[in-house]
Amino acid sequence: MSRQLGDSHRRFLQNMMTLGITNEQEAKALYQNCCETHKTQCAPDKLDEFIDAINSRLQPMFMQIRKGMSEENGHQYYALVNMAETDITRMTSDYADNELELFRKAMDLIVSSENGKVSSTDILNCTDTMTSKSLKKSETQHLLTRLVQEKWLCERRGEYTLSTRCIIEMEPYIRAMYQDQVKVCHICHNIAFQCQICENPLCGIKIHNPCVARYFKGRTDPHCPACDDFWPHEIPEVRGLRSQSKR
Amino acid sequence: GKEKASQLISEGSAFDSTVFAEHLLSFMGLNRLEDEDDEPPNGGAGDGYLPKDAWHRLARRAECCFRTAPSFHYMMGSFYAEPPPPKQRLE
Amino acid sequence: TSQVQKGLEKLSPAQVDQKTAEVVQYILVKDQKKVPIRRADLVKNIVKDYRTVYPEIIKRASRIFEQVFGLKLVEIDPKNHLYILVNNLDTPPSNPSPVEHPSNPKTGLLFVILGVIFMKGGVVRDKLVWNILKKLRVDSGLKHDEFGDVRKLVTDEFVRQRYLEYNRVAHTEPVEYEFRWGQRADMEVSKAKILEFMAELHDQDPRSWTQQYKEANPTHTSSQASSSSHR
Ligand SMILES: [Zn+2]
Ligand SMILES: [Zn+2]
Fold it and tell me: Ranges for the Non-structural maintenance of chromosomes element 1 RING C4HC3-type domain (chain A) (predicted)?
């Protein structure tokens, strides 16, 4: 059912349009700020209901504020996403056709990689096989910088990963397009790029790094939740903020 | 001359774009070159350099003068959905 | 309107809703570049067979922009039928957004140019603009780190977006050009707030610029409602 929105909802949505993605803490602060600005009631634990009201009105335009986890730190994020693929959505002007082709090639490489990463060298090499107008090296580098700035890719030491914003928006697409390559986390059931894999060849389940941290927290003798074999990987620390943002 | 002066008064202060530019440079955080104290400033705005975020600084303050609609950006749906080329993996 | 009524009777409510949603999507996508949307393009690309009910669809789309997004769909050029989106929510300076968002340096550049035009009575020669920008380390003949080809940005992009009007001055030899506010600037930019910032920069009372102050703060008896009078 679609609900009546107030200016606080509209302001929140406008902020989401500007930001693209925001973490849970920021979203809560924003929610409170929007309510204060328009003198409406704000229940701190009602953020998701507040967003649901907005989503009910965005649905006809195939837009949504969608929640998802960062593979990096395990925190919850909210992203404003597009859900349709039509002649209209393809009129977007943010990236040229050849830039989008290169982005797709980078995504192919990331999805098919073992560790969910691709080096800038491998991306630069892709330009040889492009069907649209090929990009020069300097153009590719400029494009990669833009894709990081606009929060579609993350970069660390010359290696690129899909950003949280990209994963949240593209998850249905990635599941549909890369059916046999895509990894799914055994704990949270979302797609996984940065993850640990059970070494039992008959098992081989995947778990996100932050999900590993949370699942094995405080266990001295970690075992695979599926096959019960010893879990040989290093268990990462649960990153702060989590417990803090809970209250 | 006299006519123009009285006209000016009735119109209030005159706006001097050179003065405006000077104020903007200060607002944007111009680093005036210190080691050129002995040199007389030629035209005023010639010396010094602006910090990297100068225009962002100005934009941030000027934003409230604009009622610009935020725009919607997305990646999903901006290109044709195409499955990746089949991979031949040798293992 | 009776023709619209007749057209609506032939369509199911779901069909009209869907067409309206498509129009909203199209306008949102086109607004990414901030270039006004031509009604002719909207009809040709989206409305198509629904053109008899166009007035109803555009009315509903406007309602969605207002009710869902807090935006206003405005027709800026009734002759050429151009639409832009402007923000319908007031910016409360006392309560800024707690989440920092990236700023757009072009807003700074626009402030400088629109500000000078306004302070100089509504029209300035292009030379004056280039001179000021040069003082601000933006040389219209060189590639700028932040703005790239500045001349193109100012005389092409800002003009197409309708922030600026850039016209040849009649009877000048050699040829000279002048800048004015474009129709988007008229809708989107608050003269009162420009003047306020000017006053702050000059450490001067905004009322000391008598003419500009009058223009930015029209009296309530004035029949012309100004979008810039909100405070
Ligand atoms: Zn997981
Ligand atoms: Zn296992």
Answer: 185-227
